């Protein structure tokens, strides 16, 4: 009897939650409140400006070590995507530009090339299988959630792409910076990467880490 009551209660709870989700059109992020695994709480006063983002029409600044720029329209820049399971960003690559190996722990990614050509790929977690291709204008490639992937400008001029994500805040961890832009002791990095001391210290110096 008790198990029947519990099952009935759980089913009723799930149906109630589903009904609530269906009648709630949106939940624009209240960026003054703390974020959580469930997203930001809803702000009380919503305007059309919450559903519009104009920052992707301007090329990003590629004057940096990777000669690339990512302009995000994630929930912190675009509060209207809160709770919708989507976001977008612009990718600009100067000549020789590269987005190093990185992961998005909270979303899968779809990339569409709109100018130039980009060599892009990812590495699976099964036998470290590599999938990469030189993409031209109009080509699309998907990068599954959490997998290491990269983009390299393979054109003689600048390249540009737009990337969409299956979450409002996909997260980002760039492998090079994770290894060499911190205060993890050099001897530990040498042990886990098989690089010698000179190489590790050189990379730390370039990327701002401490030996």
From TrEMBL:
This is Germin-like protein. It comes from Erythroxylum novogranatense. Residues 1-21 form the signal peptide. The keyword DNA repair does not apply. GO terms for cellular component: apoplast. It is found in: Secreted, Extracellular space, Apoplast. Residues 54-201 form the Cupin type-1 domain. InterPro entries: Cupin_1, Germin, Germin_Mn-BS, RmlC-like_jellyroll, RmlC_Cupin_sf. Belongs to the germin family. Disulfide bonds join 27-42. One of its GO terms (molecular function) is manganese ion binding. Mn(2+) binds at residues 102, 104, 109, 149. Oxalate binds at residues 104, 109. SMART domains: Cupin_1 (SM00835). Keywords: Apoplast, Disulfide bond, Glycoprotein, Manganese, Metal-binding, Receptor, Secreted, Signal.
């Amino acid at each position: 009897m008790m198990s029947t009551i519990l099952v009935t209660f759980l089913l009723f709870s799930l149906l109630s939650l589903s009904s609530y989700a269906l009648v709630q059109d949106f939940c624009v992020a209240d960026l003054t409140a703390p974020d959580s695994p469930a997203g930001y709480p809803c702000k009380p006063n919503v305007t059309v400006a919450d559903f519009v983002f104009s920052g992707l029409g301007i090329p990003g600044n590629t004057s940096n070590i990777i000669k690339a720029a990512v302009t995000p329209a994630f929930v912190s820049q675009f509060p209207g995507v809160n709770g919708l399971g989507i976001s977008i960003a612009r990718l600009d690559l100067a000549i020789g530009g590269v987005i190093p190996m990185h992961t998005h722990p909270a979303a899968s990614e779809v990339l569409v090339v709109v100018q130039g050509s980009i060599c892009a790929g990812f590495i699976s977690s099964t036998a470290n299988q590599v999938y990469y291709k030189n993409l031209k204008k109009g080509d699309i490639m998907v990068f599954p959630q959490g997998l290491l992937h990269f983009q390299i400008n393979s054109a003689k001029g600048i390249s540009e792409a737009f990337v969409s994500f299956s979450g409002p805040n996909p997260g980002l961890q760039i492998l090079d910076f994770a290894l060499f832009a911190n205060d993890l002791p050099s001897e530990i990095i040498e042990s886990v990467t098989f690089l010698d001391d000179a190489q590790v210290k050189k990379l730390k110096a370039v990327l701002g880490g401490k030996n």
